[in-house]
Amino acid sequence: MRRPALWMIALAVLLCATPLFGAEPVEHIYAVHDSTELSAYVFLPAEQGPEPVAAVVVFHGGGWSVGEAEWSFTDAGLFADAGMVGIAVEYRLSDEESITPLDAMADARDAIRWVRDNAESLGVDPERIAAYGWSAGGHLAVCAAIFNDDDLESPVSCSPNALILKSPGVSLLADLWPRHLLLGRADVRSISPDEHVRGGLPPTLILQGDLDTVTPLAGAERFCRRMKEAGNRCELEVYRDYGHLFTPAHINDKGQPQPDPEIQAAARERRSEFLRSLGFMV
Q1: Of 10, 23, 98, 280, which has fewest CB within 10 angstroms of its CB?
Q2: pTM beyond cutoff 0.85
Q3: Is 238 left (phi over 0), alpha (psi -120 to 50) or beta?
Q4: Which domains does the chain have, with CATH numbers?
């Protein structure tokens, strides 16, 4: 994963386009660090009965250093349209001075824990909380499960019950950008998910282009293989002739992402199929 550039601004415009759903999210503060409040934007299904439903917590991408929760509004709203609770969260962004991906990882754990701790008021089943993220957001989603610090501070689990990862940063050893952002506070191996796979991790779906030059397919393959070897469920859906975030082969995927609409729609249906298989979606 490389240093974010000006194309991230265009990505914000792309991902923050006015969604097709009608509901407005309800903003909650899920954590406070010094004077910084972190918000979770909750999209509720239009018709929510008395029985709790599944939730999907959405983490945006942006190389750990740019982005905002609004980038996740479309996906969170689509999950709500499907009868679940969709939650777009913000997290601390690396500033190359004091905040690092370690802080974002802690925020991801706090976000999952907050949803589970407030499951009753949100109408959520605490045993059906999925995390969905793309690129660096995919890294944060899976890290909430792998680097689980439950026994340190809270009896409430921070581990999602399922993971959906799109073009995720799951293999970081050869990636100079997170190494730079860590500011010497940790070795990049210590935050690379593929180096810490163990048994008992949540069922996982990875949506990945085979020509991805930002988060290469080889890393996703390695992670998924190790997941299976450890006895976990891992499904890898590869989209041929597409790069990062489903950018077509003839477009530089290190530039502004230009996801192919048909492939993006197919990937959304694939994640719905995965959630239905787990009983998260009807």
Answers
A1: 98
A2: yes
A3: beta
A4: 7-277 (3.40.50.1820)
